[in-house]
Amino acid sequence: MPEAQNPSDGSKSDSDSESESDSDSEDEAQAKAQIESLQTELSNNPSNYDTHVQYIKILRKQGDIEKLRQARETMSSLFPLSPEMWQEWAKDETSMSSGVEGVPAVEKLYERGVSDYLVGFYTALLKCK
């Protein structure tokens, strides 16, 4: 005869809620430490492409839009961003803008992204001639 099992009512105990809260706090503290570490790396070596990418990813995950915008602007002033990075940026700006007021800013981002690749393409083309 199988053993009787206690059905779970799906509610969380206080200890479950506390451990989730502790886990969230730990995650936030870890993310903050990682952001600070990446900022230090970038101030010491601003031309480190991979560090810029990591910094942008973690800021995006944290939702710190002002720091994220600044990080993207800084990186785009040093390197051409990948098409995916331009698309993420435009998507983020679109989701934060309300109505048609945000359309010109998003269009500008797409134009900048296209420019990154057209300039590189034409430069390569000229080198071939």
UniProtKB/TrEMBL annotation:
Return the Acidic residues bias intervals.
16-28
Ranges for the region named Disordered are: 1-33
Q: In this record, what's one Pfam family? A: Suf
Domain named Suppressor of forked is located at: 34-114
Q: Per the annotation, which location comes first and is thus the protein's main one?
A: nucleus
Asked whether the keyword Cell division is assigned, the reply is no
Provide a GO CC annotation, any one. Answer: nucleus
Matching InterPro entries, A to Z? Answer: Suf, TPR-like_helical_dom_sf
Q: Which UniProt keywords apply?
A: mRNA processing, mRNA splicing, Nucleus, Repeat
GO biological process terms held by the UniProt record: mRNA processing; RNA splicing
The cellular location(s) given in this protein's UniProt record come to: Nucleus
Protein name per Swiss-Prot or TrEMBL: Suppressor of forked domain-containing protein
What organism is this sequence from? Erythranthe guttata
